[in-house]
Amino acid sequence: MREELFARPRPLADALRGAFARAISIYVAGKRGARGCFLVGTATTEAVQDTEIRKVLADGLHELDDLLTTRLRQALDSGELKSDLEPGVLARVLCGIMNSLALRARAGEPRATLEATAEAGVRLVCDWR
Q1: The domain that contains 61 carries what CATH number?
Q2: For residue 70, which of 5, 14, 27, 93 sits 20 to 30 Å off, Cα-Cα?
Q3: How far apart are CA 114 and CA 29, in angstroms?
Q4: What is the CA radius of gyration of the chain?
Q5: Residue 8 phi/psi, 5° resolution?
Q6: Is the Cα dihedral 107, 22, 38, 87 positive or negative?
Q7: Is residue 1, in this structure, part of any structural domain at all?
């Protein structure tokens, strides 16, 4: 994810599209069907009773939140992104979309539907007025 968000200077929307595209490619891959995401699909269930898994889950979520927050803050500071919402809040919204994509991939939603959902998320954040 870091590569898609920070690899080279590019518009925020393109960076987010790259991150979502990579995630979707991972989520829909699998020998027996879409695999989704380990954190979303497995760790969330086990975290209820296992404190170590709960920590892994929280750390994974916060790592993505932090990456997105940093990239969003850069876009706000440069004037590329116009929003009165705090970057951490926007990051959690984008993370929520990412998690939804994983769940929906595992549920069998078509790639085109996942891509449309990701694009809506990008536009909600980047076209904010």
Answers
A1: 1.10.357.10
A2: 27
A3: 13
A4: 15
A5: -150, 155
A6: negative
A7: no
> Could you write out the DSSP letters of every residue in 39-97?
IIIIIHHHTTT-HHHHHHHHHHHHHHHHHHHHHHHHHHHHTS---SS-HHHHHHHHHHH
What is the count of structural domains for the chain?
1
Cα 78–chain centre separation: 22
**36-94 pLDDT tens trace:** 565 666 666 667 787 887 888 788 888 889 999 999 999 999 999 998 899 999 999 99
Structure tokens at 34: 């879409």
Place of tokens 């078509």: 110
Q: Is residue 47 part of a domain?
A: yes
Give the position of tokens 């449309």. Answer: 116
